[in-house]
Amino acid sequence: MALVVDARGEQCPIPVVKATKALAGITAPEVLEVHVDNETAVQNLLRMAAGRKLQAKSEKLGERDLLVTVHVDGAAQVPAAAEEPAACPGDLRGDTVVAVGTSHMGSGSDELGAILMKGFLYALSQQEELPRTVLFYNGGARLTTEGSASLEDLKTMETQGVEILTCGTCLDFYGIKDKLQVGGVTNMYAIVEKLTRARKVIRP
Fold this sequence. Notes:
Blueprint lengths: L2 E4 L7 H11 L5 E7 L2 H13 L3 E8 L2 E8 L23 E5 L9 H16 L7 E4 L14 H9 L3 E5 H7 L9 E3 L1 H10 L2 E3 L2
Parallel strand pairs: 1-2, 5-6, 5-9, 6-7, 7-8
Antiparallel strand pairs: 2-4, 3-4
Helix pairs in contact: 1-2, 3-4
């Protein structure tokens, strides 16, 4: 029977910490199963296993249930006094919040502005240091919903731990709440809190 660690609902580095502690207690060949609910945790667990030269694989069991399976051949593969990670391996996020209040960038031609916004979000997803949060409100709410040309770029950022949040009032106003394709729904209180606590705010 496998050793099971449930780290769903936990943010990095907690899943890695729990897995590391479980590995430290293994004294014979064993299979460790770690359940998490986000892709960032999956990647961090796979990196941790690779660093210990352990075979590991991941699979999606449900919408919020991702499984990482680690095979341990023996205790010799796991240091007896494993150190807990001080920070999330592979966490590329800075302390910047990007606030997107429109579906196009700049003033003048809306058609050109839409092209510029798509380019902006793509370029944002390719940065060495990603933002911690991207907020969408008013017309910007359309960028996280069905039909948006930027969905893949936003999903790419989300899998790397970037928080994608869209104003619920705005989604309701435009009648597109059921078309949300990436990230979560937020409110104005949370938006203000994110903006006031950010080290830097970018408004394209």
